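Worked example

This section walks through a single chain of length 224. The input is the sequence exactly as stored; nothing has been trimmed or padded.
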Amino acid sequence: MGDILASDLILQAQELAQDDNTADADRTWNDAQSLAWLNEAQLAICGLKPDAKAVNRVVQLVAGTTRQSVAGRQLFSVIRNMGVDGLTPGRAVRLVDRGAKDESDPDWHIETAATEVKEYVYDDRDHAVFYVSPPAHATTAVYVEVFEAINPTKLAAVTSAIDIDDVYAPALVEWMMYRFFGRDSEETPNYVRANGFKQNFYSLLGLDIKSEMAYSPKKREQLN
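Given that input, the structure is written out below as tokens.
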């Protein structure tokens, strides 16, 4: 969570747009609309850079190997076992490739269940789901620590602090500017300005069209 208030960023955007009249009713883009676009900007950043809002969390596994799921938007990694009480750090959990696992141990889904897992499998196409080996025990609780992306909290008022790190403040302003001017038709100068602000938004995030893959556990493993 950041320290910068929504009102500070909204005022900055309104000043850049020369729409900083004292009375909210006299502005082209009032505080309520600006706050909506600021919330949208937080979501856009977290969608493009999932690690912009991420947490470590202890989760209880469901019995077996299948469809262990995280509460957040995307799994980054399964870190370690956390005992039968969710409080006791234990063995590290290793990421393995599903194809290699299936080939070397085709019966891994029906192995004897255990209270400690050794490996996990992840599919880039199903961001919030993973599988574990050996299967999690059905009657004894099995906990692991995961690192996952979560959605930012929606800002309820302009007096709220932004819910992602302050380092993203310039990008948040650029997104608001893009939305300020993006409603005009393609024939207007404002449409060109809007596209410029949108490009600035992406540039500030250092992103390209393939950037999302860098945040999957598989891609991170390849980059290490």
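What to look for: Residues 31-48 form the longest helix (18 residues).
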